[in-house]
TrEMBL record:
GO terms for molecular function: aspartic-type endopeptidase activity. The chain crosses the membrane at residues 63-79, 86-106, 112-128, 135-155, 175-198, 210-227. This is Prepilin peptidase. Keywords: Membrane, Transmembrane, Transmembrane helix. PANTHER family: PREPILIN LEADER PEPTIDASE_N-METHYLTRANSFERASE-RELATED (PTHR30487:SF0), TYPE 4 PREPILIN-LIKE PROTEINS LEADER PEPTIDE-PROCESSING ENZYME (PTHR30487). Belongs to the peptidase A24 family. GO terms for cellular component: plasma membrane. GO terms for biological process: signal peptide processing. It comes from Sandarakinorhabdus fusca. It comes from the Bacteria.
Length: 236
């Protein structure tokens, strides 16, 4: 007979792991950009401190990141048996790091997105969706956003997407498979529209120069869609 506490062990493990990961993410996302000379942007665009969920103060910022990482770990290991739960936790923690960097610096470094994509492809050896689905997802994710960015630049003469967004979307495709990509984009767009609508209700001006960290929205949407998956259409 299974001990009652055994069912809570994965949640406790995920929470503990997330606490450690969150502390590392908070430190890394604070020190790394500054070591390269990055300066955090002012929160005066469409996105502001609500999106980062980090009130002023380094201590509170660190606490919020740790709590979110702990929740990611707990939910991941509760949602899936091993090794899928651990994979989902790692996916979520790396997305959290990218989300913080994009919100604070509009920066999605290749040193995070490329390993994230590689791990997603490797995970297909053991977990659904299959490696071919993941490969197609990675290619489609990159091509779709890179194509949109190129078309926008040709038509307007301005840069509409950062160079890291297509790479992040490719990494998401490598984890979730190609079928998930439209849903990720739709959910991310919904988050963005909700933020814009909220700002309009508060009387903030929205112009063509207003900026939203798309990568952060994609990261949040991707992990939230990982939780209920894999959908049956993703199965081998």
């Amino acid at each position: 007979m299974t001990e009652p506490w055994a069912s809570y062990a994965p949640i406790a493990l995920g929470t503990a792991g997330g606490t450690v990961a969150g502390a590392a993410i908070a430190e890394m996302t604070h020190r790394w950009p500054k070591s390269l000379g990055f300066v955090a942007h002012r929160h005066d665009d469409v996105h502001d401190q609500r999106l980062a969920a980090t009130p002023p103060g380094a201590g509170r910022r660190r606490l919020v990141i740790i709590l979110v990482a702990a929740a990611i770990g707990a939910v991941s290991l509760a949602a899936r048996p091993l090794p899928g739960g651990i994979g989902g936790a790692i996916f979520g923690w790396m997305l959290l790091a990218l989300l913080v960097l994009d919100v604070e610096y509009f920066w999605l470094p290749d040193r995070l997105t490329v390993p994230l994509a590689a791990m997603g492809l490797a995970a297909g050896i053991w977990l659904p969706p299959s490696v071919p689905d993941r490969l197609i997802g990675a290619a489609a994710g990159f091509a779709s956003l890179a194509g949109i960015a190129y078309a926008y630049r040709v038509m307007t003469g301005r840069v509409g997407l950062g160079g890291g967004d297509p790479r992040l979307f490719a990494a998401i495709g490598a984890w979730l498979g190609w079928v998930a990509l439209p849903f990720v984009l739709l959910l991310a767009a919904s988050f963005g529209l909700a933020l814009v609508a909220y700002d309009r209700l508060r009387g903030r001006a929205i112009t063509r120069h207003s900026r939203i960290p798309l990568g952060a929205l994609l990261a949040a949407a991707a992990w939230l869609l990982w939780v209920p998956g894999p959908f049956s259409v993703w199965e081998r």
